[in-house]
Design a protein that fits this description.
It is a single chain. By secondary structure, this protein is an alpha/beta fold. Helices cover about 45% and strands about 15% of the residues. Strands 3-2-1-4-5-6-7 form a seven-stranded parallel sheet, with helices on both faces. The protein is globular, with a radius of gyration of 17 Å.
């Protein structure tokens, strides 16, 4: 068991990339709080986390988009474990659409889905991290923050705003032993992408044509990067947006 186990809150942890990340942190021996809307899959992930090596793991059902539920989640995790040392902020995305297809109401709704909940979580955890002189925050975003994706105007804009806000925060808190990084996620084998592409076969075919590595990524491949960023080994790495995408992003830097 990891002698330097920390309390880690992973949101969006009932499946896909969030679940894989929770299990990767469990293998490092941390104490896990896993949060998402659905209790049953969360309880399963918590049980798997304990079996994988977590010092403790509990499920905290919560709708992150609801201010009251989010506040209750943070209070409950604090009461159960005494605080949060590691935050992996993973949430849902807004509706698709081109710029001209969207209304100002859509932009307001997207802010409350993509940006407000994540910033709220960060504002909550920073004071105790400052007090303890240690903390890790990792946000799971999208390659759209480096290379906009067609028909996803809201996601392109709001996720980029989140990354920019976290970059500013990382500069502010770096001297306090707190690191803040973002992951620009590419094509991974998750239920959400299977649904978007229609089938796993269609997703794989698209990846062969778009991703230089020539395949879809495994959630575990992303989770291992996140676990590293949450470790002592990544103490000199902050304010970065790291592409984990098999080479999909064509941007020169990142």
């Amino acid at each position: 068991m990891n002698a330097s186990a920390r309390v880690a809150l992973v949101t969006g942890a009932s499946g896909g990339l969030g679940a894989a990340t929770a299990l990767a942190l469990a293998r490092d021996g941390h104490i896990l709080a896993v949060a998402a809307r659905r209790r049953e899959p969360l309880e399963e992930i918590a049980a798997r986390a304990r079996a994988a090596g977590a010092r403790e793991a509990r499920a905290f059902p919560c709708d992150l988009n609801d201010d009251g539920e989010r506040a209750r989640l943070l209070d409950d995790v604090g009461s159960a474990f005494g605080g949060i040392d590691i935050l992996v902020a993973n949430g849902g995305g807004p509706k698709p659409g081109s710029f001209e297809q969207l209304s100002l109401a859509d932009w307001d709704a997207a802010y409350r889905i993509v940006l407000r909940p994540m910033l709220s979580l960060v504002y909550h955890v920073l004071p105790l991290m400052r007090e303890r002189r240690w903390g890790r925050i990792v946000a799971l975003t999208s390659t759209s923050v480096k290379q906009p994706i067609g028909n996803l105007a809201l996601s392109n804009a709001l996720r980029t705003a989140l990354v920019s806000a976290l970059k500013s925060a990382a500069t502010d808190v770096a001297a306090a032993g707190i690191t803040i990084n973002s992951i620009a996620t590419g094509r991974f084998l998750t239920d959400r992408l299977r649904s978007l592409y229609g089938s796993e076969e269609a997703l794989e075919a698209a990846a062969r044509g778009e991703v230089p590595i020539g395949r879809v990524g495994s959630p575990q491949e992303l989770a291992d990067v996140v676990a590293f960023l949450c470790s002592e080994r990544a103490s000199y790495l902050t304010g970065q947006t790291i592409s984990v995408d098999g080479g999909l992003t064509r941007a020169l830097f990142g």
